[in-house]
Specification:
Blueprint (H helix, E strand, L loop, with lengths): L3 H8 L5 H4 L5 H18 L5 H13 L15 H13 L3 H27 L2 H13 L1 H4 L8 H16 L7 H17 L7 H11 L4 H15 L1 H9 L1 H14 L10 H12 L7 H14 L6 H18 L13 H17 L4 H32 L17 H14 L5 E4 L3 H4 L4 E2 L17 H7 L4 H9 L5 E4 L11 H10 L2 E7 L2 E6 L7
Parallel strand pairs: 1-2, 1-3
Antiparallel strand pairs: 3-5, 4-5
Helix pairs in contact: 3-6, 4-5, 6-7, 6-9, 6-18, 7-18, 7-19, 9-10, 10-12, 11-12, 13-14, 16-18, 17-18
Length: about 525
């Protein structure tokens, strides 16, 4: 038999105390992950949603406001964050993807620091980083221009501050925790469902300063959601439609929360997913085992697990539900799994038990990474089973090089600032052309027929009939018909192509599978 302290010493090689306590350890971990996520960001196939996110960011740079000046279906902070970045670096897909990689790298660094802080075990911190970086939900959805990485970064910061909360914590600590939570909500609005859980945690940990701590957190939260409040008061109807009304209409009658058969299919894909394997299942099973064994009672693990549960529930509720929404859950599941496992190891009393448990953990980690390697190949190269990519043959259309080539072709044909129709906004983003009014977002067509003409003008969406009329009168001189389709918003490419050709437009340039049309003189009909 060996003592408790001896078991810990034999389990994990100990680093010198001066190094273990150095905050500089965050830096190499961050830099390693920055290199990894920058590589991923440059090669990950483009997701269709990135087009409208990036064009919205460019429009914000041009002093136009989401909801008020163009259709935008998410919380408003993301385009403002990217607009500020573009002010510093210039407009390009490479610049956009580099900015997308930074929150992922920062989050990975914070995850490492937090697990090490909670366990005192550098190997546990390293394991958490490996799980994070090799998760298909992370490298597949964080280092691209979507809301996941930024929203989770802010939310994880709020978690870190609250899990280290004590009755002696200052009012500025509480206000900052509320602020970063508010910024998370301003990036992805339904994260707000975590608010009751965080409020309960504040009351639980604040001792005799419960009310003061809660009020300062609320004050910080209000500051964090200022972008939402400003745009809401500017036009409540437009704000509510873009954030709620559109999502209810696009569900096809199922409402904001409905179509439970689809949700069951999504859950099945998450736990046995074609692009994630059983990675999510591994983390979930480990968490449940640690709870059953009573190892997840520490504050950090408990709050992380509760946040993962709440986020998992809200991620399955929207209609339609998508597996990618569960990217929000992964960092909290990792904390809830790794920290209890590390504490379990620290309490093992024999070398034999440690070897058996270590072998089991190694096999689980190796399996997790193995599924990640398969997903890595899909998301970056083949496009197989990647949402928005219609198989490997379509993958070349969704590369940064190909989309940038289309933007360059537009610049050769269009005058600077000329309004150009593109059925996918991503082609316009890095060009010097402007989007033709109503084409700033490619998803409005889904619900346009359900709106009155006055509502369509107010919310900046077009019906297919209105699009056809514009083409018939040759209002846009140039039209870009590319690899967009029903899975990326807008009409299928063949329908857009037929409309352009029927209305007298001629094909003037081809870039891969993307076609650029130019009109002849005069309208088709009076």
């Amino acid at each position: 038999m060996i003592s408790h302290e001896d078991s810990r010493t034999n389990a994990v090689p100990r680093l010198p105390a001066r190094i273990r306590k150095s905050p500089l350890l965050f830096i190499p971990v961050f830099l390693l992950q920055a290199g990894f996520f920058l590589f991923v960001s440059r090669h990950r196939l483009i997701d269709g949603d990135e087009g409208f996110y990036l064009l919205a960011s460019r429009l914000v740079m041009q002093h136009r406001a989401p909801y008020l000046d163009f259709f935008y279906t998410q919380a408003p902070l993301l385009p403002y964050a990217y607009a500020l970045w573009f002010k510093l670096t210039g407009l390009s897909w490479l610049s956009a993807r580099a900015f997308a990689a930074l929150p992922a790298a920062l989050l990975g660094g914070l995850l490492y620091e937090h697990v090490w802080h909670e366990t005192g075990n550098w190997l546990a911190g390293a394991s958490a980083v490996v799980l994070f970086a090799s998760s298909s939900f992370v490298f597949g959805w964080y280092p691209i221009v979507k809301t996941f990485a930024l929203a989770v970064l802010f939310l994880f910061l709020a978690y870190l501050m609250l899990v280290r909360l004590s009755p002696s914590s200052s009012r500025w600590w509480m206000a900052t925790a509320g602020l970063v939570f508010g910024l998370s909500v301003a990036t992805r609005s339904y994260v707000v469902v975590v608010a009751p859980l965080l409020a309960w945690w504040i009351l639980r940990r604040s001792g005799g300063r419960k009310l003061a701590h809660l009020l300062w957190a609320v004050a910080g939260f209000i500051i964090g959601i200022v972008p939402c409040l400003v745009l809401f008061f500017a036009s409540p109807a437009a704000y509510l439609f873009n954030n709620l009304g559109y999502h209810e209409m696009r569900s096809g009658g199922a409402g904001l929360i409905g179509d439970w058969q689809d949700k069951l299919q999504v859950l099945a894909e998450i736990f046995t997913g074609r692009s994630t394997g059983v990675q999510f299942s591994i983390l979930t099973v480990v968490c449940i085992c640690m709870i059953v064994m009573g190892r997840a009672k520490r504050d950090a693990s408990l709050l992380a697990f509760l946040m993962a549960v709440v986020l998992g529930i809200v991620s399955i509720l929207p209609t339609p539900a998508l597996p990618q929404y569960f990217a929000l859950v992964v960092p909290f599941l990792i904390v809830a799994a790794v920290c209890p496992v590390s504490h379990y190891f620290s309490n093992l009393q024999t070398a034999r038990a440690m070897r058996i448990a270590g072998a089991g953990c190694f096999l689980l980690l190796a399996g997790f990474v193995g599924f990640g390697i398969a997903g890595f190949r899909q998301y970056l190269f083949t496009g197989y089973q990647v949402p928005g990519v219609v198989g490997p043959a379509d993958a070349p259309n969704w590369t940064l090089r190909q989309v940038s080539a289309v933007s360059k072709a537009i610049d050769e044909l269009a005058a600077p600032g000329e309004p150009v129709v593109s059925f996918w906004p991503g082609y316009i983003f890095a060009s010097h052309a402007n989007p033709f009014p109503g084409y700033e977002n490619n998803f409005g067509i889904y619900i346009s027929e359900q709106l009155s003409p006055e509502q369509r003008r107010k919310y900046h969406v077009l019906t297919r009939g209105e699009m056809y009329r514009q083409f018939a009168f040759h209002e846009p001189r140039l039209a870009v018909v590319g690899n967009q389709g029903p899975r990326s918003g807008g009409p299928p490419p063949w329908a857009a192509q037929a409309m352009a050709e029927h209305c007298g437009y001629r094909l003037v340039q081809t870039v891969g599978d993307t076609l650029i049309y130019q009109c002849c003189a005069g309208p088709v009909f009076p």
